[in-house]
Specification:
This protein is α/β, with parallel strands linked by helices and about 450 residues long. Helices cover about 35% and strands about 20% of the residues. Helix 1 crosses helix 9, helix 5 packs across helix 9 and helix 11 packs across helix 13. It binds zinc ion (ZN).
Length: about 450
């Protein structure tokens, strides 16, 4: 019997990631509540993360930790008693963070609380009311269209009270204190791509790196509710932010579209260039998009006072596929092969970022005197002498401990081999070291 090749392994990985999405999918997640804790327990089983918590009303930067929300039951019955919506059938039927309500309403009074998608009449939309006290029911538009005058019975049996706000975190220390932070949001109820796919891929990656070991940089995997989760985490880790070198935000990794990269705010950092070169090396199509301040938690990690190099890896960008934030973002929309492909790309990206070395000019205040060290002589008189000299000057100028060799090559317009040659010459002369060995 022949051992399974890479394709077979990928098939199995895809099936396992899809099965994990299927396990996470039905849970009633929101910013807080039992569904989030159930989710974290599943992720804990996968990768051994630690579950953390803050309490409601705790201040976090410019925000406060929200009340904890839980759902006992929620349904809507029509005038003749027919069940029109029930969270037991689909948790998207209830607007997230709906306050408790019980009563009979006529259709005109009910309508402002109903949400549907006229252009997608069979799908249930996803709505939340995190910061405004309200309640609402989400329905397929074909149901809303057929509603007749009469009395409707509404039960929204929820609790919204002081409690806990949870997230999960796994820190895998490396030889270096500096960190790569990989994060994904955990606050969405039953939608498979947004974001069971992100949780499945990130937790399996965390498990693989925990098992594999040997990484030089510390890897931190963070599973937190969107926006306020990142804000609470930042508020608690202000002293540690300086150790974070790269942030990778993961979401929407299972749809059939190609991978996409949302660049850092700067757009041409090591993180940007490494993501592009990893895709090129894998032969993976990668759609590149510039930074914008609208999106996932890159908004927090790239806020000016935090200013961490942050990219977002997803497949089809959020908001640009019709299934986004609807009941059609289901387990059929998410493909095992897309999940496996996203996983492999992010794994390779982390490996590449972990392996990166950053030259440091040891004589960086003013230029070192090259002639005294025989480095001009080493340039020789051949036709490449001019190029060799330029390579040396580019290396000396860009060896700031934060720039990788391929970036120096790209910036200089010289072949990478020429840059490497200059690095070796400068190293031999004692003028160049490596950031990783100096920390
Ligand atoms: Zn979303």
């Amino acid at each position: 019997m022949t051992p399974p090749g890479p394709a077979a392994t990928n098939d199995q990985l895809g099936r396992e990631l899809h099965a994990l999405c299927a396990e996470l999918y039905p849970l009633f997640r929101s910013l807080t509540g039992e569904g989030v804790r159930q989710t974290l327990r599943i992720l804990q089983r996968v990768c051994g993360l630690d579950v953390r918590s803050a309490v409601s009303h705790e201040p976090a930067l410019d925000w406060t930790v929200p009340l904890e929300w839980n759902v006992r039951e929620a349904w809507l019955r029509g005038p003749s008693g027919e069940l029109l919506a029930d969270v037991r059938r689909h948790n998207l039927h209830l607007v997230g963070y709906s306050v408790p309500f019980r009563g009979r309403l006529d259709l005109d009074a009910l309508r402002p609380h109903l949400h549907s998608l006229p252009d997608r009449p069979d799908w249930i939309p996803y709505r939340t009311t995190y910061w405004a006290r309200d309640w609402g029911v989400c329905l397929p538009h074909r149901v809303v269209e057929r509603l007749e005058p009469g009395l409707y019975e509404v039960v929204v049996d929820t609790t919204l009270e002081p409690g806990h706000f949870n997230w999960g975190e796994l820190l895998l220390p490396g030889m270096l204190r500096e960190e790569i932070l990989i994060t994904t949001h955990i606050c969405h109820p039953s939608m498979a791509n947004d974001n069971c796919s992100g949780m499945a891929v990130a937790s399996r990656l965390a498990a693989e790196f925990a098992r594999r070991g040997g990484h030089r940089r510390s890897l931190r995997f963070l599973f937190a509710p969107g926006t306020v989760g990142a804000i609470v985490w930042l508020a608690r880790h202000l002293d540690e932010i300086r150790h974070i070198r790269h942030v990778i935000v993961l979401a929407g990794l299972g749809d059939p579209g190609p991978l996409s990269l949302k660049h850092t705010r700067d757009g041409r950092l090591e993180l940007d260039e490494t993501a592009v070169s990893v895709a090129r090396a894998r032969g993976t199509a990668l759609i590149e998009r510039p930074f914008s301040p609208y999106g996932y938690d890159e908004r927090q990690y790239a806020s000016p006072g935090v200013n961490l190099p942050t990219i977002v890896i997803q497949r089809t960008p959020f908001g640009t596929y019709p299934q986004y934030h609807t009941s059609a973002d289901d387990l059929e929309f998410v493909r095992p092969e897309s999940l496996a492909d996203s996983y492999a790309f992010v794994r390779d990206l982390i490996l590449e970022l972990d392996a990166a070395r950053h030259p440091v000019n040891r004589c960086s205040i003013g230029e070192p005197q090259l002639g005294r060290r025989g480095l001009y002589a080493a340039l020789g008189g051949d036709s490449h002498a001019q190029e060799r000299q330029m390579a040396m000057l580019w290396v000396l100028n860009l060896a700031d401990g934060r720039t990788i060799v391929s970036q120096i090559a790209a910036r200089s317009g010289l072949p990478e081999s020429r840059i490497t040659e200059a690095i070796h010459a400068l190293e031999r002369a004692g003028l160049l070291g490596w950031a990783e060995e100096m920390r």
